[in-house]
Design a protein that fits this description.
This protein is α+β, with helices and mostly antiparallel strands. It folds into two domains: 11-118, no CATH class; 123-205, Alpha-Beta Plaits (2-Layer Sandwich). It is built from six helices and six strands. A four-stranded antiparallel beta sheet has the order 4-5-3-6, covered by helices on one side. The chain has a two-stranded antiparallel sheet with strand order 1-2. The chain is elongated. It starts with 10 loop residues before the first helix and ends with a strand.
């Protein structure tokens, strides 16, 4: 199982979470004989407080797996996977083997089959373009026209200039493409050969 590979929480963390929930539920089963309230006592044992406490604590751990990277939020699938593993551990520990096994199969189908489809669906991407020119280089409108011709959207545009007539243009770009489309845009190669362009940098931001 490698669904958490490369994420904020790895396979060992996921296995420990599932094992902890399973052991805790087994403990609840061992305490079942103590459930209820004796006729001569005002105290009632509520055994469901243990799994409920586990699920609540798991929420805090899952929140720690969600991080913000630039303008993207990553780790949500990892947090959901860890939460679901906790539920599976409670099922197995509580003796609902068939329910736990069915849930595990469905989870594998979702995490593998749906990911295969997601990788081939168009998603929003973001990148940063930097162009340094001399006095004979292209202006802002020329750069933007090349970018927009390929379906890229400019969300921010920065400019700075020096005393030696050099100019630096920075631009945050967004576009819609599949995860498999990792080629360098054609406008990058075109700008590289444009007269007056002394430096160009293209940095796509990954999720």
């Amino acid at each position: 199982m490698t669904v958490c590979s490369g994420r904020a929480a790895g396979i060992r963390t996921a296995m420990l979470v599932c094992l902890a929930a399973c052991v805790a539920m087994l403990q609840v089963n061992l305490l079942l004989s103590l459930a209820g309230r004796p006729s001569d006592s005002f105290i009632m044992n509520d055994l469901m407080r243990l799994p409920l406490g586990i699920l609540s604590g798991m929420g805090f751990i899952g929140a720690g797996a969600i991080v913000r990277r630039d303008n993207f939020v990553v780790g949500v699938t990892t947090a959901a996977t860890m939460w679901f593993l906790t539920v599976l551990g409670l099922c197995f520990g509580g003796g609902q083997i068939a329910l736990g096994a069915t849930g595990a199969v469905l989870a594998i189908v979702i995490l593998t089959g749906i990911k295969y489809l997601e990788d081939r669906m168009k998603q929003d991407h973001q990148g940063r373009l930097l162009v340094v020119t001399d006095a004979s280089g292209p202006e802002e409108e020329q750069i933007l026209s090349l970018v927009r011709a390929e379906g890229f959207r400019a969300s921010a545009f920065g400019y700075s200039a020096g005393e030696t007539e050099w100019q630096e243009w920075t631009c945050e770009l967004r576009w819609h493409a599949t995860l498999q489309d990792v080629t360098i845009p054609a406008f990058v190669r075109l700008l590289r050969t444009t007269r007056g362009v002394t430096r160009i940098s293209w940095t796509p931001q990954t999720r």
